[in-house]
Amino acid sequence: MKGSFNMTQDELKTLVGRAALRYVEPGCIVGVGTGSTVNKFIEALSAMKGQIAGAVSSSLASTERLRAAGIEVLDAAAVDELALYVDGADEIDHAGYMIKGGGAALTREKIVAAQSRRFICIADESKLVKVLGKFPIPVEVIPMAGRRIAKQFAAIGGVAALRMQGGEPLLTDNGQHILDVTGLKIADPLGFESAVNQWPGVVTVGVFAHQKAQMCLLGTGSGVKVLSF
Ligand code: 5RP
Fold first, then answer.
1. Nearest by Cα to 217 from 22, 1, 29
2. Residue 85: which domain range?
């Protein structure tokens, strides 16, 4: 697919993946997200592998890629605090609030984001929105609670669909299910995240408001636009 100014979405992802490198301090441990944009960052980061102390990963998929790139992956539980977390988003608004979890890694992504002082979101310009909610909101749930949580979403106007893979419910890295919720506009991301996270059986809602980005490197046809929040 071609983006504006004839750059493909893939080229825009490469652009921002590379641009994030300039925020990686030598000697640091980098928090690494998940997804096709982050894969470009991992590719770029491999050139710095001798200069960083390693990475904390947000998914089994990213762990595999980091190791293949020769970057040591450290256990999140063994690391106190990270200076930087780099991750993509399914949607990001003008305050740095995001929808994430299109790659089913939202829970670990939020954990690593919470452990990090700074969240830099890397995204192509198609991800920038005024109001979150066009992209189906991923919600990781304990399977026995899925039906009831779907009813709770219906009560506020949402439609929850169980994410499937190969004819079976998709299992996350944590062995749980994902509901994808459509039909909601998120006018109050902080309030929405807090409320849904209280529902019994919700592991994580894919609205990242309490763990928002402080910066977004947005890939546009005329280059990387830096948004600070
Ligand atoms: C994975 C995520 C990703 O960051 C999000 O889905 C964006 O992915 P991509 O860079 O492939 O568009 O939240 O759980």
1. 22
2. 9-129+210-228
Neighbours of 180 (CB within 10 A): 18
109 is catalytic: yes
Q: What is the pLDDT of residues 215-229, one digit of tens each?
A: 999 999 999 999 999
Distance from residue 87's CA to the centre of ligand 1 (Å): 8
Torsion of CA 176, 180, 185, 190, to 10 degrees: 10
Nearest by Cα to 212 from 128, 102, 96, 46: 96
Tokens of 23: 């925020």
Cβ–ligand 1 contact at 90 (below 6 Å): yes
| Tokens, residue 219 | 């890939």
Q: How many domains does the chain contain in total?
A: 2
The pLDDT of 10-27, averaged and rounded, is 97
